[in-house]
Design brief:
The protein contains three helices and no strands. It is mainly α. It comes from Paraoerskovia sediminicola.
């Protein structure tokens, strides 16, 4: 999924992905989105359907991604 999201970002095309609960969808779109934002020095807006998912992204998924050993990005997001 992350590769498909990365391709969609680079080609500026829409992408529809469906996957079950607990399959890592949040990281599947966050990692390529944040990587693009850092490399292109642009902002990325992530809109969630629920406050619970928003809380998960802010308190669990993004902090996990910021760990240097898990990052595949040459710079740190601002």
């Amino acid at each position: 999924m992350a590769e498909a999201v990365d391709t969609a970002i680079r080609t500026e095309e829409h992408l529809l992905v469906q996957a079950g609960t607990g399959t890592g969808k949040s990281l599947g779109y966050l990692v390529p989105a944040v990587r693009h934002a850092v490399l292109a020095d642009e902002r990325v807006v992530v809109s969630t359907a629920t406050l619970a998912l928003q809380r998960q992204v802010m308190t669990r998924d993004l902090p996990w991604w910021r760990t240097p050993s898990r990052r595949s990005c040459p710079a740190r997001p601002r």
